[in-house]
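S.,

Sequence below, as promised.
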Amino acid sequence: MVCMGNICRSPMAAAVLSNRTATWTAPKIIVDSSGTSAWHVGQAAHPTSQKIWENAGYRYTHSARQFQSSDFFTSDLILVMDSNNFNNVIKLAINDESRNKVHYLRSFDATLNNIDPASVDYHKLEVPDPYNQSDEAYEETLSMVEHAVDGLLQELKSL
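The prediction came back faster than expected:
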């Protein structure tokens, strides 16, 4: 999971996915998150983000880190929150195999999976950054993440 600062969206998405797959053995899911910037490296999740995911029943411990090109070697799937993150991650890819691992998280949302990320509608696949906004903005982010994770899990169950 990748966002900009790695304190709001990507740790929230990691909390959801890691909790929902904690008992899976096949395929075994290891979840991590990072940010394309180094602004918050070493920091915990944004307090509101963590409060919202914990209120929804998810438990997750987080320490922010920056996305590195080496992540392409340790990850099978890289899920980004918006076009800025997508472009920043793609710039670090060394080949097509690496680029093919990068997807918008919301492209797995069943209501959005017909949208081509390369089309003019790419913005519909973005998870907006709720940084320092209202609890409601974080709750909307959680809802978007949960719908996307639902679709991702359906796809992974078929493996």
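The chain has a mean pLDDT of 97.

Coffee later?
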